[in-house]
Amino acid sequence: MTDLTGLIKSYDVRGIVGEQLTEGIARAIGAAFADTIVLPEGATSVVIGHDMRDSGPGLAAAVAAGLQDRGVDVVRIGLCSTDGLYHATGALDMPGVMVTASHNPAAYNGMKMCRSRARAVGENTGLGLVRDRATRYVDDGVPVEDERGTVSDRDMIRDYGEFLRSLVPLDGIRPLKVVVDAGNAMAGYTVPAVLESAAGLAALPLEIVPLYFELDGTFPNHEPNPLEEENLRDLQKAVVEHGADLGLAFDGDADRCFVVDERGAVVRASAITALVGLREAARVRADGGTATVIHNLISSRAVPELLGADGITTVRSRVGHSFIKALMADNDAVFGGEHSAHFYFRDFFYADSGMLAALHVMAALGQQDGPLSEMLADYDPYTASGEINSTVADVASALDRIRASFGARDGVTLDEMDGLTVDHWGAEPRWWFNVRPSGTEPLLRLNVEAADADTMEAVRDDALAVIREA
């Protein structure tokens, strides 16, 4: 019996093309998506897009064929970012499949699936059902309806750009010079369409300095993963050399956005969460509403502090888009942010959009005269370690060691919402850390934050010593 557990994961489909993911398997997944998600919800059509990887068109065609086999019509929008696909599922009110491996290396591809209006399909919201049905179809073949579904093509890039611009207008800002590192990935397609006039939209007061806009799924310059520091170095250098106001880096499918200030310093995603959360809350309040903002538990403590001081309700979430999207909908939250630079918007179908976050940053900067570093100085007051991975022989034993070592210390509280969070923020010196297991590897992921650098380093080294104890 075929085993698809290594391919169809908790949040999406992702694997090595030709080994874990073939066009035959993609066809089975498309048919399974039709039978377990699309048809039971009364939908009759699915929108499909793909990124710039060489395997994208073939895999997208295979998914479409599987959907058609089960009698579902397909609307192909071709090249798009993941948030472009989310926009299409909202604008067309139909489920969607995005063929992408996000920031993974060139050998990979995969899929992100959603219901209409970008509602998540994850392990606990249908993806497990898709995996089980797809396994059966790989082994036994896909049953074909007497009347297969149809295929049509639609260009959505201009609609996508217009929609984003309507949410965050940039027309009245001061002129900004912006370096953008697309990493040879989908931002090379979406940035000219949204921030420039490639899709026929009016020019904005932006001078875009492009880095690696040529679409190339082999990623000849660097992997499209801005979470890794080495993948931001070209952007940091270019911002300083060009005297730019800021730099933007997008990941492979352009649903995440990372920001570099005018000095070439990387801006923490938590600072962007605080900035955009305050902006979105102010907009809602201006119309007489109340505002809730979601943040994941790895976000800086500055996020709930700054938003709470402004009277905004904040809700803490587990890490992962399916969790934060569910909380967004349950709380009717106006905005949500993750430490990994996923930013979610109520007005964007509760989904994440790197481009919309970028528009907010540029709007805020362009509405005042100072540099970005000065504007964000109060949004990032603490020191963080970043995510540190440790390979361990026994994840459960390592977590037990952390509980035993830190749990009895004065002023410490523990919680297990997601992994293990050790909290000393209510006492001096202020610090906290979270340790989470990887879902696929024998790894523990450590994130530490403290009120000052010396404390952060001491706690980081202490925690790593316990985690890595032989």
Automatic annotation (TrEMBL):
<keyword id="KW-0460">Magnesium</keyword>
<feature type="domain" description="Alpha-D-phosphohexomutase alpha/beta/alpha">
    <location>
        <begin position="160"/>
        <end position="264"/>
    </location>
</feature>
<feature type="domain" description="Alpha-D-phosphohexomutase alpha/beta/alpha">
    <location>
        <begin position="286"/>
        <end position="382"/>
    </location>
</feature>
<dbReference type="InterPro" id="IPR005846">
    <property type="entry name" value="A-D-PHexomutase_a/b/a-III"/>
</dbReference>
<feature type="domain" description="Alpha-D-phosphohexomutase alpha/beta/alpha">
    <location>
        <begin position="8"/>
        <end position="123"/>
    </location>
</feature>
<dbReference type="InterPro" id="IPR036900">
    <property type="entry name" value="A-D-PHexomutase_C_sf"/>
</dbReference>
<keyword id="KW-0413">Isomerase</keyword>
<dbReference type="InterPro" id="IPR005844">
    <property type="entry name" value="A-D-PHexomutase_a/b/a-I"/>
</dbReference>
<protein>
    <submittedName>
        <fullName>Phosphomannomutase/phosphoglucomutase</fullName>
    </submittedName>
</protein>
<keyword id="KW-0479">Metal-binding</keyword>
<keyword id="KW-0597">Phosphoprotein</keyword>
<dbReference type="GO" id="GO:0005975">
    <property type="term" value="P:carbohydrate metabolic process"/>
</dbReference>
<dbReference type="InterPro" id="IPR005845">
    <property type="entry name" value="A-D-PHexomutase_a/b/a-II"/>
</dbReference>
<comment type="similarity">
    <text>Belongs to the phosphohexose mutase family.</text>
</comment>
<dbReference type="InterPro" id="IPR005841">
    <property type="entry name" value="Alpha-D-phosphohexomutase_SF"/>
</dbReference>
<dbReference type="Pfam" id="PF02878">
    <property type="entry name" value="PGM_PMM_I"/>
</dbReference>
<dbReference type="GO" id="GO:0016868">
    <property type="term" value="F:intramolecular phosphotransferase activity"/>
</dbReference>
<dbReference type="Pfam" id="PF02880">
    <property type="entry name" value="PGM_PMM_III"/>
</dbReference>
<feature type="domain" description="Alpha-D-phosphohexomutase C-terminal">
    <location>
        <begin position="387"/>
        <end position="463"/>
    </location>
</feature>
<dbReference type="GO" id="GO:0000287">
    <property type="term" value="F:magnesium ion binding"/>
</dbReference>
<dbReference type="Pfam" id="PF02879">
    <property type="entry name" value="PGM_PMM_II"/>
</dbReference>
<dbReference type="InterPro" id="IPR005843">
    <property type="entry name" value="A-D-PHexomutase_C"/>
</dbReference>
<dbReference type="InterPro" id="IPR016055">
    <property type="entry name" value="A-D-PHexomutase_a/b/a-I/II/III"/>
</dbReference>
<dbReference type="Pfam" id="PF00408">
    <property type="entry name" value="PGM_PMM_IV"/>
</dbReference>
<dbReference type="InterPro" id="IPR016066">
    <property type="entry name" value="A-D-PHexomutase_CS"/>
</dbReference>
